[in-house]
Specification:
This protein has helices spanning 2-5, 11-18, 66-79, 84-99, 107-110, 123-141; strands at 31-37, 42-51, 54-63, 146-148. With 150 residues, it is of the alpha+beta class. The longest helix is centred in the C-terminal third of the chain and has 19 residues, at 123-141. The structure holds zinc ion. Zinc ion binds at residues 37, 40, 42, 64-65, 67-68, 128.
Length: 150
Amino acid sequence: MFEDLRDLYQEVIFDHNRNPRNFRIMENADRKVEGFNPLCGDRLTLFLKLNGDVIEDASFQGSGCAISTASVSLMTEIIKGKTVDEAEQLFETFHKMTTGKDEEIQLEAVGKLAVLAGVREYPARVKCATLAWHTLDAAIKNQQESISTE
Ligand code: ZN
């Protein structure tokens, strides 16, 4: 498994896995959703602080594999200061990118997230990378307290 994944573990993923950004419980969060990927055992809780339409703060807790941790860490960094619409657009782009529906990886659109696009070569890992985003989607829509990728 480690050998197969080696290509994915680029510097950014290593870095975010070792030192996850925004890894904390948020007091007074406006949204709190738990995400679970039973395929791998990744579990996270996403916290959002909203100011009108703007995601003022994002943080998470939980434990998962390196890809899921790096993905949620990157995501919390990227969505801060974005509007919920912008965040949903990123989710769309990221989802297409990881599932290989877009031929080209849109580097400009997703920035650092592009490092996770390598998961599309490993279908079993796609859910690890997208778990954070499905959880974000649920948090933005504010309809569920927990989601599962299965
Ligand atoms: Zn995983």
